[in-house]
Write a structure and sequence with these properties.
Elements (H helix, E strand, L loop, with lengths): L8 H8 L3 H15 L4 E11 L28 H14 L3 E6 L8 H14 L4 E5 L5 H10 L3 E3 L6 H7 L5 H13 L3 E3 L2 E3 L5 H12 L7 E6 L16 H14 L4 E4 L8 H9 L4 E3 L3 E2 L2 E2 L3 H11 L2 E2 L11 E2 L2 E2 L5
Parallel strand pairs: 1-2, 1-9, 1-12, 2-3, 3-4, 4-5, 6-7, 7-8, 8-9
Antiparallel strand pairs: 10-11, 13-14
């Protein structure tokens, strides 16, 4: 299938506004052409440094300025991180993501320690992902050399809505980080959050931005806001499954080879709703008790769901050609 990065805003809008069953049908057909149906990547996300963040993201319980009850802690010991990675692997995860509540990476001992964690988790045979805030080209290159497989840096929302949600960094700051990640040869993971009080036009604009990057992100997380008391968005209503289906289905049609990740908010979704999301093109989830600091379905619940729906976990490094792995690291290959 021909990949397009020249979608117009009107084209994206027309897809997004299809009757929802027609949208799901078209997305399912494209998914069957470009992905292994019935295969879902299972990922686990661990907060390796929690709270105390200087940013003002209106949705985030880790922002120091909000009183959310989140207990801040410094960078976890290596042994604790590796034990969590082993539990994730034993539970069926093939990608392990480490998140730190930093505005940006600083070249210090903590970053050196994260590089060591990346190397060790990569040696366990897991795809390693990090979300550490903004980074520069040199830092991206160091992460690549350590064996980092993917870097997550979400756009969160549209450029037009962005300043209502975050004022401590710009939309272009986010795009620049994605450019540095791509230049280093690291897989790009970037999506957004719905339920922030945005309009359909904002959702369409965010999807348009992602689908018209020079190269599609290898992974696009679709998050439903999990409102947290103490944040400015604490009283936002729950996102409906129909809204999630529009985001997932549109993302699948626009970016057919991308992993579309059913992410935050899954704890509130019954299996029937999650099944519809898989039908619409979602083929990745986060499993484990928490997504950083918010509740998430555990491994046992997801194993039961997989058995019921006939799903199987995607293998690690599936898109890396045979012979491309050197000492447990990729030899310049991006999946």
């Amino acid at each position: 299938m021909l990949l397009r990065t020249d979608w117009t805003l009107d084209e994206v809008k027309a897809i997004y506004n299809l009757p929802v069953l027609e949208l799901v049908s078209q997305a399912a057909a494209i998914h069957a052409q470009t992905q292994a149906t019935g295969e879902v990547q299972v990922c686990t996300l661990l907060s390796v440094k929690t709270g105390g963040c200087p940013e003002d993201c209106a949705y985030c319980p880790q922002a120091a300025r909000y009183h959310t009850g989140v207990q801040a802690h410094k960078l976890l010991p290596d042994a604790e991180v590796l034990a969590a990675a082993q539990r994730a692997k034993d539970g069926g995860s093939t990608r392990f993501c480490m998140g730190a509540a930093w505005r940006e990476i600083r070249d210090n001992r903590d970053f050196d320690r994260v590089l060591g964690m990346v190397e060790q988790v990569n040696g366990m045979g897991l795809e390693v992902c990090c979300t550490l805030g903004m980074l520069n080209e040199y830092q991206a290159e160091r992460l690549k050399q350590a064996g980092l497989y993917a870097y997550n840096h979400n756009l969160d929302t549209s450029r037009e809505k962005y300043d209502d949600i975050i004022t401590t960094r710009t939309y272009d700051d986010r795009l620049n980080t994605l450019e540095h990640v791509r230049k280093a040869g690291i897989s790009v993971c970037s999506g957004g959050i719905i339920g922030l009080g945005e309009t359909d036009e904002d959702r369409i604009a965010m999807l348009h931005t992602l689908a018209t990057l020079p190269q599609h992100p290898e992974s696009v997380p679709v998050n439903a806001l999990v409102p947290v008391q103490g944040t400015p968005l604490a009283d936002q209503p729950r996102v409906s499954v129909w809204e999630m289906l529009r985001m997932i289905g549109t993302a699948r049609i626009l970016m057919p080879h991308t992993m579309v990740r059913l992410s935050a908010g899954r704890q509130e979704m019954p299996v029937t709703e999650q099944a519809l999301c898989f039908l619409a093109g979602a083929n990745s989830i986060f499993s484990g008790e928490k997504l950083l600091t918010t509740p998430n379905p555990d491994f046992d619940a997801d194993k039961q769901m997989f058995a019921l729906l006939g799903l199987k976990p995607r293998k690690s490094f599936k898109d890396v050609p045979e012979g491309a792995m050197v000492l447990g690291k990729e030899a310049g290959v991006v999946a």
